[in-house]
Amino acid sequence: MSDTVRIKQIIDEAYDTKTFVFDWDAEVRPGQFIMIWIPGTDEIPMSVSGISDTTKSITVKAIGDATKRLHEYKVGDRLTIRGPYGNGFDLKSRNILIIGGGVGTAAIMPAVVETGADTIIAARSDRDLIMLDTARKHAANLWIATDDGSAGFHGNAVQLMNEKLKEKSYDYVISCGPEVMLYFMFKACQDADQDCQLSLERYMKCGAGVCGCCVMDDKRICKDGPVFTRDQIAQLTEFGVSRRDACGRVVKFR
Amino acid sequence: MVSLKTDVGSISLENPGMIASGIMDETGKSLVRVLRSGAGAAVTKSIGLEPKPGHDNPCFMEVRGGYVNAMGLPNPGIELFREEMEEAVKEGKIIGSIYGAGPEDFSKLAARMEDYGACAVELNLSCPHAKGYGMEVGTDPAMVKAIVSAVKSSVSIPVWAKLTPNTHILTQIGLAVQEAGGDAVVAINTLKAMVISPEFARPIMSNKFCGLSGEAVKPVGVRAIYDLATVLDIPLVGVGGISNWRDAAEYIMAGASAFQVGSAVGTEGLCVFKNINEGLSAFMEEYGYGSIRSMVGAAHE
């Protein structure tokens, strides 16, 4: 089933990233995603970046045809969506460290709002940092990392995480970001014996656990994930190594 | 103790349920997962000669009573599918689903599937949304006969034909399969369908047309199996809207020796096989059916 919703507000997050807030009273858990149809271009999975009883939001970086088209949408325009899909984050502990990398910050922001936990937001440079206002408002502590040192810690998300894990112990780390970042974060968590929940991504068609196009090893990213625990990720031989294209062909990352 | 063992011709299955083609069956590891969840066999995604990305998104959505999809036969092509098969056939019985434009394509693909260790091939003569394939070749009895004959002469493993309900001559097509030496008929594939967005005044699927699956199609599938059972002597495999033991029992009593499950993997999860197995056993125990064979076609008597 799909719902057609109306865009209520558009927030400019960065030069290439916008948040679209729309009326939608569905129940959504932090870490879940929805499929967004952009008529004439595509249907794409997007993390829900903001959750209230009556509204939800998505935060979109203009990269491909569909996301560029979406950036042309105005307040009052309509979106057709289906979902929510996936399991979302397990937020039973508040003693967690939440880390967003790049536009992956969108997926972790509802967890920051719900828990008020310590948060790291990382990006290439200060131009690429998003959702800082929301994070500042809700996070107990907010730390920023940029690859080029233009804001906050000079280094990447994993390096800053390692620093913070030396200062304080957390029940687990929650993160979403580029797979290469998550891969090294997972390795660092293994080395430090630190529990974590990482939100993974793959090419999707159905989103609902039926077609199997998004499998990583034998796990469907859409239905069994997109959030996986450290123990689950340790079983995934394809994580950080390869993905599959629309035909189902293996594409190596390196 | 009742037994859930069943035979589809020369293929023996420990459990009567299989994963239907197109559902969690594009990779070796996901086929293995399906087999470990209580399926008696797994049918692969339909594989063609060349890699194919399928139709653009949107190609799937939930509707009342089921799903519609217009995946458009995405697959890595028969060459690359070798690796997936190598991983899967070690774990259990794999039926290689293939699609092609005519007898030559199907023969080549079937031979490769046999080389890869498939225990049978399932000819996709029924996909309703792929131009030049599937239903477009599967609604002409002469073409069906030619394809099945050609495949029969190129492989020694059993040849199953999966038929479409989108025809008024289903039994004629079934007879064409049988006359050509086909070993089993699988029915049904999805019902040709369409969904339109009133807000955007256009069909939602990128391909416009799609196929309806799920509980809404079950009575159509049961009728198709019942009709086919009245005219065919070869075994039947029932598929369409099965999500619990009652659905499976309906198909078996209509005349199916085994069944396939598709959409219910989305609605129920992969535990659907275990749940059906337990429910069928309990039913058979209570009603005095010692074997699946003793139930097959019971509704005809």
Q: How many β-strands of chain B, per DSSP?
A: 16
Termini Cα gap of chain B: 25 Å
How does the major sheet of chain A shape up?
A: 7 strands, mixed
| Total DSSP helices of chain B | 10
Rg of chain B computed from alpha carbons, rounded to a whole number of angstroms = 18 Å
Structural class of chain B, by secondary structure, is alpha/beta
Biggest chain-to-chain interface with counts: A-B, 33 and 42 residues
Regions with little confidence, pLDDT below 50 for 5+ residues of chain B: none
Description:
The complex is a heterodimer of chains A (254) and B (301). Helices cover 22% and strands 36% of the residues of chain A. Chain A has helices at residues 65-71, 105-115, 132-138, 157-167, 179-192, 230-234; strands spanning 3-14, 17-23, 33-38, 42-51, 55-61, 78-85, 96-101, 118-123, 142-146, 153-154, 172-176, 196-199, 215-216, 219-220, 227-229, 242-244, 250-252. In chain A, the strands form four sheets. Chain A has a seven-stranded mixed β-sheet, sandwiched between helices. In chain A, strands 1-2-5-4-3-6 form a six-stranded antiparallel β-barrel. In chain A, strands 13-14 form a two-stranded antiparallel sheet. In chain A, α2 (105-115) packs parallel to α3 and α4 (157-167) packs parallel to α5. The N and C termini of chain A lie far apart (39 Å). In chain B, α1 (28-36) runs parallel beside α2. Chain B is globular, with a radius of gyration of 18 Å. The longest helix of chain B is centred in the last third of the chain and has 16 residues, at 272-287. In chain B, the strands form four sheets. An eight-stranded parallel beta barrel of chain B has the order 3-4-7-8-9-10-15-16, surrounded by eight helices. A four-stranded antiparallel β-sheet of chain B has the order 5-6-14-11, with no helix packed on it. Chain B has a two-stranded antiparallel sheet with strand order 1-2. Helix content of chain B is 35%, strand content 20%. Chain B is of the alpha/beta class.
